[in-house]
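Question (not urgent): is this output format expected?
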Amino acid sequence: MIKIRKSRGLRAAATALTGVALLAAAACGGGSTSSGSSSSVGSDTSSVSSSSSAVDTSSVSSSVGGSDKSTPSTNAGASSESSFAAQSGDFGKGKTATLVSSQSVNDKGVMQDFVSGFKDATAAAGMKSNIVVLTDPSTYQSTLESVSTRSDLVFTTFPPMIQALEAVAPNHPKVDYVILDAQLTKPISNVQELFFRENQSSYLAGVIAGEMTKTKKVGFLGALKQDVIDRYLVGYWAGVKSVSPAIQVCYAYVGSLNDPALGKQFANTMYGQGVDIIHAATAGTEVGIYQAAEEDHKYLIGADVDIRPYAPKFGLTAAGPDFAGAAKVTVGQFAANKFKTGLQTYGLADGAVRLLPYNDDLVPQKVQADVAKARQAIVDGKITVPDDKSVGSVKNCT
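Got this back:
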């Protein structure tokens, strides 16, 4: 049985979130949602190739030029440069890194964010870079096998690629692999399983909610009862309580990753019960929560993607992984000949989780300053944020 830490439906559905939200909000141009044989990042269609053939890697570009700057930068008191800037070293120079993605890299969400960091980090390390987008699951293993013969570092994405990676990686012991947000059935000596400390970024969301609530009652909505979503909840709870233990935190799991109508129903109910700020980690379901916030004139903190275009009047910010940061961490490790294998979890100190940009018209400067202090305290080890193992101690509406 494949173990995935019950995490990755959320992240994979973040692509659906941005696509549906763009249609719902009609706020900006849509990303590529085509199921065809090619996709692109930004306007540079030469920078990304899709492969629908199990063995044909001639479509893989030999390098990815330029840098996509459309993804929002980190926030919450972070410096403009990530704290983990790609490590220098000669080990990576001239070597090749390849991203093999099982979903669109032009999603205006987590994968586009990852590609931005991947490009920047490989360029800084003097490495060649390739991107392959796969649209046919039957090609995962054969394509991964083929790119492994011409790559030194290979990134794969999410649980759909577990089986292919487990079959291929042992055949190429001199190649280092990373799988994003998925855990193998058993460790492989040249594979890093990359996860995030979402509890740390959601702690900062809790500080915002705790300081801005007027009713002293805030809420959390999760898509499903999963460990990754529990990390958002536990961190948020702890952040709120750091402001005032008297503030109530109510929470619910809506039971779906992609049901905006259900998300709206849950949010309307929660707002109607006196909650004036909701932190939502609900993937595509979050679109309905945006709508409820705008209708009920109550605040919302999202997850993973910049929510300002979708809830411009009541969306405060969003919390979650910094996929660009994660790319820089792992490429930096490889470039310095310090690549880590096994289960690796990254947080604020690594530059791999964050708050996305604030809606400055809504979040007071004092709140932003207090969040920056809390962020630094976490990085310095002065605050230890509980993780999903503590979820049992989180009592509803207390």
